[in-house]
TrEMBL record:
It is a multi-pass membrane protein. It comes from Illadopsis cleaveri. Keywords: Endoplasmic reticulum, Membrane, Transmembrane, Transmembrane helix. This is Protein jagunal homolog 1. Belongs to the jagunal family. GO terms for biological process: endoplasmic reticulum organization; granulocyte colony-stimulating factor signaling pathway; vesicle-mediated transport.
Length: 183
């Protein structure tokens, strides 16, 4: 055994301790996945705020209807999609598995389901726009159905990746829990 200032043990350069200083892979993965999910949640909050602004402007008639159209029906239940994101953020500090599971389930109910309904609700108007070139609702000069389909596509990707990373994070937390039980 080498002392602090004395000679080293034969056959070692003093760096043989480094293998013990590595962070376990599931802890590294947990930190990385939390970071990715936070980025997706912040992106979702930006989309959510844009939809909320469109709804407020449409209902309060702050701008004429040729500038900002009234919201589609799917936008109202989509406003609840902020709840799963908050649950996800609440699950991070203490690796709370139950909050993360609730976040994943409610993401399906309050985020993905309204987006699917929205795609179906707007489909006839999208057909009319692309077959006949007629649009009746506008958002700052653009066809409202085109803008909202873009929002639906981006939001579906954000929530899809959020679910994917949440599942991987859940698996990482279960790995950590299983290793603690073995000790």
């Amino acid at each position: 055994v080498a002392s602090r200032g004395g000679p080293r043990a034969a056959g070692t350069d003093g760096s043989d301790f480094q293998h013990r200083e590595r962070v376990a892979s599931h802890y590294q993965m947990s930190v990385t996945l939390k970071s990715e999910i936070k980025k997706l949640i912040y992106t979702h909050v930006v989309l959510w705020l844009l939809l909320l602004a469109q709804m407020v402007v449409g209902h309060l008639k702050l701008l004429p209807h040729d500038q900002v159209a009234m919201p589609y029906q799917w936008e109202y239940p989509y406003l609840l999609s902020i709840l799963p994101s908050l649950l996800g953020l609440l699950s991070f500090p203490r690796n709370n598995i139950s909050y993360l599971v609730l976040s994943m389930i409610s993401t399906g109910l309050f985020s993905m389901a309204p987006l699917i309904y929205g795609a179906m609700e707007m489909f006839p108007m999208a057909q009319q726009l692309y077959r006949h070139g007629k649009a009746y609702r506008f958002i700052f000069g653009f066809s409202a159905v085109s803008v909202m389909y873009l929002v639906v596509v981006v939001a579906a990707q954000v929530h899809g990746w959020q679910l994917y990373y949440s599942k991987k994070l859940l698996d990482s937390w279960f790995t950590s829990t299983q290793e603690k039980k073995k000790k």
